[in-house]
Amino acid sequence: MKHTTLLVAIMYTTILSISMGFLLSTVAMLIKRGVQFKQDGLYISWLSLFLLVHFSLFWQTAVLMEVEEWVFSSFLYLVIGPILLFIASNLLVTGVGEFDAGDLNQHFRDISRRFFVFMALLAVWLVSIGAELGRENSTVWYADMGLAALALVLVFRRTTLSDTLGVIVAWLLVVVPWMLLPS
């Protein structure tokens, strides 16, 4: 393994770890405040899904270690994904402490258009990086394409029903492909 591979993996996981720290701090704060799923289920569902996406991208660091040689432009393109995830995650958690129970769903609706733009960009990045790393035509790659399409629909479709159905479909697109992977 070359030193550049290790440097790429370190930067990639550092950005993911910082972003994950923001999400986990928010989860701890919500638990401390006693936020209930019944009142704020939409927000909690997207927050939980993004935690899972962080773990998924972190797990894929092993694929990065297989790359023999990195050049600076490839490195920059690679870290775009964690940066997009970081921005989308920050949209989710910024200012959450100021909301009362039951107001988090409204907070999500207020930031959702921007959130879904970054989610769509992230999903497009996942598709392109999957192709770059030779992972095209895999179940996960097709699911990432579905996630990109879903996010684009959700950018323009602003109803409670579309948000609710969107999070259900997003969960399926993230979880099911990983369940189908060989151990």
Describe this structure in words.
- With 183 residues, the chain is mainly α.
- Helices cover 81% and strands 0% of the residues.
- The protein contains 7 helices and no strands.
- The chain has helices at 3-33, 37-59, 61-64, 72-93, 104-132, 139-156, 160-180.
- The longest helix is centred in the first third of the chain and has 31 residues, at 3-33.
- It is globular and about 50 Å long.
- The mean pLDDT is 87.
Rg of Cα set:
17 Å
Kindly name the structural category: mainly alpha
Number of E strands:
0
Question: Strand percentage, roughly?
Answer: under 5%
Residue stretches low in confidence (pLDDT < 50, at least 5 long) are none
Percent of residues in helices? over 70%
Q: What's the pLDDT, averaged over the residues?
A: 87
Shape type = globular
Briefly summarize what is shown.
The longest helix has 31 residues, at 3-33. The chain is 81% helix and 0% strand. The protein is globular.
